[in-house]
Write the structure tokens for this entry.
Amino acid sequence: MRYFAYGSNLLTRRLRHPSRAPSAVPLGMASAPGFVMRFHKIGTDGSGKCTLIATGNDADIVYGVLYEFADSDLPGLDREEGVHLGGYARHSLRLRLPNGDPAEAMTYIAGERYIDAACVPFDWYRDLVVAGAREHRLPPAYVRELERTAATPDPDAARAARARRLLPGPFPTPPAGR
């Protein structure tokens, strides 16, 4: 199955967790024209999580990573993404590869009633998204935009510590001009 990750699942280490999609293999960067990504999905912990918002304007682009994983991983990833709770639903998305070729993949998008523009992510969640964007060398301007996302400390220090264990050391700086 092909899957487009644009939020915390960008980070390969997170996506490959045994409860998510342990067979996931990154195929490379992809983009979703006609969308913006916002941290406006109301998470079960009350913080903002990533979702795609359709704009209909092809100048708006969300960068992410195209992964492939075994169909048998889908129930676990659905469970981790909370599909059974109704917050996210699976969608088929038309993507563009760096060479301009089209691609199609499944992704998760929040339902309208689960979106609140006032949501703010916890700092560890934003940092997972940024780490995944750096890991896969998404465009530097896009990574800087993610880094500038306002975030708040998680009042649950244990949850924050568990999440931060997924963060790798510093990633190499992408070459100039990328």
